[in-house]
Amino acid sequence: MTLLKTVGDPARLRELTAGELRELAGEIRAFLIERVSAAGGHLGPNLGVVELTIALHTVFESPRDRLLWDTGHQSYVHKILTGRQDGFDRLRKAGGVSGYPSREESEHDLVENSHASTALSYADGLARADAHLGVRDRATVAVIGDGAMTGGMAWEALNNIAGGPERPLVIVLNDNRRSYAPTVGGFAEHLSGLRAGHGAGVFGELGLGYLGPVDGHDLPAVQDALRQAVALGGPVVVHVITAKGRGYRHTEANDLDLGHAVKPMDPRTGRALKASPPSFTSVFGEKLVELAERRDDLVAVTAAMAEPTGLLPLQRRYPHRVIDVGIAEQHAVTMAAGLSLGGVHPVVAIYSTFVNRALDQLLMDVALHRRPVTFVLDRSGVTGDDGPSHNGMWDLSVLQVVPGLRIAAPRDGTRLAELLAEAVAWREGPTLLRFPKGPAGADLPAVAAFNGLDVLRRAGSLDVLIVAVGALAGLALTVADALRARGAGVTVVDPRWVTPVNPALADLARRHRLAITVEDNSRAGGVGSAIAQTLRDAGVRTPLREFGIPRRFLGQGTRAEVLAACGLTARSVTGAVEELLAGLDSVPTADMDAPGTWPVHSGEEL
């Protein structure tokens, strides 16, 4: 039996000798390579924290002592050591271990922080609570990467932590010189000096204790530093130097991201098990390069995610036209407003879930000033395998309130390219495109156009109007075919630009017995809600039913599994529509193909 199989909880670690702990570290790395290669996930970050995590669990006693991870994707080793080895067979899948800390999984996971730069604020609050309640027999430990330290929230927390020198708090700075990409900015340069032994730097100036730098792969050295930090009392920074991707040649040799997030792959070769088809992300990246070749004023902005958001082709073609601000979404948005004021058109590429962090900046610094900034939200809608925090299910609900913001939801790759070109050409204010993670799929051409709407299907009488939002157009067409097979007439339209609502939708809805909307955004405040308001304002009495994501956090699984759990399948939607039709009073319907019913012709819109 391997040592790892004998570790069911952290207490077992404290029974092992130093030699056995070193042996255990090797077994953990082999386990990570095998299981993460099979499932996909954050391999590089976890290979880099094996010894550090062992040290934390030998010096501190979780869950009595609170261990916080920032960002939480580096918690796989922590999960392995706290009784969750078996769950790695279904890592990031329904019923398996989450890719981030999960309170549902274990009492050892206190917070579910998958958004960066938050742990120090949690830790400050926990330390203050202990002080208020007179609790002195437990420690609070925040592990934060140097990449997460580029976020402004981390510095807000440090400012407050330094203001309470009497409150014990251990801050482990896991310095591997990277977030997803190499850490950028002046702080990265400052850490270089600290790594060279040039004192306590900014931490000392703030009045924080400082220990280090410490080799994060020297287990006894890390254990000693942690014990010293506890003995010092007060807030102490333990500066630990680690190597992302350590111990696996394919991650160590990956210059792009050191295996930050891998797809299912052959662990022997490090090659993906299957080729990825063209994705919305890749289509965006290619089109942006094409636009940049024609327009010198286009630049792109990323918050430490150039490759995942599709900016790598532009960065390779025009390195000086991609600005990486680190994990600093708020700064990225207001800086983009400044670029716009200076005569540049910025394209801010960001995950949908992370744009929530910059709502105030988008609202007050961009929209209020009517700046022509284009936002491109990757991972919109259901992402699935990264769990509740990474679903981009709120962007339409949150951002439709922003005055002057035009929002597009492309249904396929061709529409993405068209709408991106339209977005960067708009000079009256901000624009935004949203699309999901995954393949762009086959193109879904329009059969006609009607006052700015793409008509995707038109058959039979005017029974059901289906408004398809973005990538759920394929689902809408499947539903239309099923309804048509049962004798109902259907019209399927894609608004392309979903905000502001096209008044033509009210005209169409008025002519149908029933209207439905289908979107992979929250039903609360989504496109369906906005269209319902438009119909009410126009005095349209046609019943409208919104199909979307319920107002709850969604568990992990594949995109298809999560959508199915939300009722967003052809079978579920078709069944619901049939019930709605059955409940309607019989009313005369016009033949859609009758002359003069509505002005439609194929090709260009009227």
Write up what this structure looks like.
- Helix 5 runs parallel beside helix 6.
- The C terminus is likely disordered.
- The protein contains 22 helices and 20 strands.
- The termini are far apart.
- It has a seven-stranded mixed β-sheet with strand order 9-8-10-11-13-12-18, sandwiched between helices.
- Helices cover 36% and strands 17% of the residues.
- It is globular.
- It is α/β, with parallel strands linked by helices and 606 residues long.
- Strand 4, helix 9 and strand 5 form a beta-alpha-beta unit.
Could you say which overall geometry the principal axes of the C-alpha atoms support?
Answer: globular
Radius of gyration: 27 Å
Strand order of the largest sheet: 9-8-10-11-13-12-18
Number of E-type strands: 20
Assign the structural class, choosing from mainly alpha, mainly beta, alpha/beta, alpha+beta, or little secondary structure.
alpha/beta
Portion in strands: 15-25%
Specify the biggest β-sheet: 7 strands, mixed
Brief characterization of the structure:
The chain is an alpha/beta fold and 606 residues long.
